[in-house]
């Protein structure tokens, strides 16, 4: 029988070199931007690879860790699960738009005070989520653990933990994150 070990491999079927591209206009951290993108580009990759806003992190890239959380039109989303072309005309806020080292957002200052991080990889997503969570509670949006749907939603640790459950922290800084959120909520200055 002839040896087949060194047989020339069959050529792989060529993938189509043609990709669909689209121009999108959106507002990122208050600045108008226009991007020409492969339509398969996620919002996460558009932010990191095309706008160089690397504060938003890629953890799992399939909606399980929350590291990629950004705020779109005042709601938090996992940017890895959303195509950039879905967001033309939207307002996107990333961690870079929340505060800066010289001018920390109150939630960022509370995270620093309470050691709400260790390695910091999840922190941008945690803070984008935490800021939005307090606004959700303030707006009376109930969660799975809200007992009474007829009154204001209380800013309890149970409410905060439930709403932050999509933001994983491999370092386990959860208790300190909740302390930081409780302080920011009490101060009432997370606008
Ligand atoms: S990177 Fe998006 S949820 Fe993990
Ligand atoms: S601080 Fe390390 S993963 Fe959260």
Main attributes of the structure:
191 residues, alpha+beta, 14% strand, globular, binds FE2/S2 (inorganic) cluster
Describe the structure.
The protein has a five-stranded mixed beta sheet with strand order 2-1-5-3-4, sandwiched between helices. The model has no long low-confidence stretch (mean pLDDT 92). It has six helices and five strands, in the order ββαβββααααα. The protein has 191 residues and is an alpha+beta fold. Strand 1 (21-28) and strand 2 form a beta hairpin. The chain is globular, with a radius of gyration of 21 Å. The longest helix is centred in the last third of the chain and has 16 residues, at 123-138. Helices cover 30% and strands 14% of the residues. The N and C termini lie far apart (76 Å). It binds FE2/S2 (inorganic) cluster (FES) (2 copies). One FE2/S2 (inorganic) cluster is lined by residues 117-123, 169-171, 173.
